[in-house]
Fold this protein.
Amino acid sequence: MANELGTKIFRQEARFIAGAAKPSQLPKMFLPQVAFVGKSNVGKSSLINTICRRKNLARVSHTPGRTRQINFFLIAEKLVIADLPGYGFAKVPVEEKQNWEKLILHYLQNSPTLKLVNLLIDARRGIKENDFKVIQLLHSYDKQIQLVFTKADKVKFKEGFEVEIKNYLASLGYLLCNVVLSSSKNGVGAKELQLSLAQYVK
Ligand SMILES: Nc1nc2c(ncn2[C@@H]2O[C@H](COP(=O)(O)OP(=O)(O)OP(=O)(O)O)[C@@H](O)[C@H]2O)c(=O)[nH]1
Ligand SMILES: [Mg+2]
């Protein structure tokens, strides 16, 4: 069944394959890639671990600004997951912040095998101005995005929330953007995310 095939790759091997702290270190990828992007501390690394059913594949921390380079993980020898450094963290020195931003932009713009960008939004805080900038940027790069609201265990969503967000995105030109509610604490949304990533595996 399609569902089983979709989640099967996440029961197979997942391993770290490369890290890039600057554009010149970005590895050339031939396999399909999916990326996790979002503000610092939004839960990118945690969600990658949840999706891959692993505790410590991607490094998580209580201190924002934990992921300092783009980390690439290979899933079942078939799919690459990219864990990006977060944006918008005030305490990182300006120069370092600019370097991360440059790296993120370079990666998003110059990765032909990047099939889907999961843009993570803290469900407690909602979409912020820098998230909108990223949405617009990805739109201009012609990248498929999926909006993932994280830490859903911390909030109560009102009915129709996803539809409302979808309509809003459609008004911006994102007619086919998927919206997922997720939690790394209780696993909500994990299967849906697995299936959405697995569709890019050949
Ligand atoms: N309650 C709750 N906490 C979460 C969830 N996901 C992540 N966290 C917590 O949020 C903090 C940040 O998680 P990370 O996964 O490191 O976030 P990140 O987006 O990778 O952070 P940077 O790499 O610094 O940009 C950690 O303390 C996690 O335990 C979730 O679904 N629910
Ligand atoms: Mg991280």
Q: What stands out?
A: The chain has a mean pLDDT of 91.
